[in-house]
Structures are given as structure tokens and as C-alpha cells.
Amino acid sequence: MKIKSLIAISLLSASFSLFAAESSSTTTNIQTQGVIQAQKELNDYEKIMIEKVWITTDAIDEKGNKTTPDNAQVSNYFGLAEYYPNGTFIMFTPEGKQKMQGDWSMSDDGKIRTLVAKDTEGKTLFTRDVENITVKDDEYTYRIYPNADDRNVYFDIIHHVKK
């Protein structure tokens, strides 16, 4: 009877040790991956974007006219966005529902922002480049073209830091 108890205790102990070692290894992997992502060198324009919540405040057409947020050509661009130092982002609708996540970057000259939208498994859904117009501490504006073949018609999508 004592031998069966000792064997059972030994097996239980070995299983627990294996689980603890595996759990520790997984945690280390996750932490290591996080550190690797966090070590991404940010350029000056990327540094402006991080650690803020950006809210879309206006959409202005090529003639300087404000466009309402419910305009079908700009409605998808309204909402809130957060850009993180590890190169990821998350976006929300104006009502606060998550609408997009993925990776982001800015060109070193600040002229182009690239978004790589991903699903919850990390699969790329699409990549979008936009032309930056203004990248300042309190304002971020980019330009969209409803028809990629017509550069005469556009909207400037203006964001400010949420207070």
C-alpha cells in the first residue's frame, strides 16, 4: 500500500514539475517575443503617434468643405485609434466597438502611414497606405482618394488627441 502511494505521489509530482516547466517556458517565450517587438526602433513620426488616443474630428474635401461623418465616402474613417510602440494598433468605431487591429508604421520621411489589418488569428486582411498631410503632437491628418485613379477628388481625414 505504501509503495502504491509513493508511486502515485511521484507521478503527481513529476506531472506538476513538467507542467510548471512547460508553463514557465511558454511565459518566457511570450515575454521574449514582447521584448523583441518592443525593441522596434521608432522614427520621429512614429514617436508622435504613440501613447495617445486619436479621434477623428473632421473630413474635408478637396474644395475645403467639411463632410459629415455619415458620408459613405468617409464614414469608415471616423472613430478612435491607438498606435503602440511595438508596431501594433487598434481602431474603434465612434460608438466604441473595435473595428480593426494589426500592425502599423510610418515612413522615415513621415509621408506615408501603412496599416496591415489582421484578424484575431493574425492573418492579414488587407494593407493600406495613406498619404500623410500633417503629423504633429496634437493633429494627425491623412488624405484618402475615393477613386484611386482620380487624384483630383480626395478627403483629408483629420484626427486630434482625445482629451
UniProtKB/TrEMBL annotation:
Residues 1-20 form the signal peptide. Transmembrane segments: none annotated. Keywords: Signal. The keyword Lipid metabolism does not apply. Residues 47-161 form the DUF4822 domain. The keyword Signal applies. InterPro entries: DUF4822. This is DUF4822 domain-containing protein.
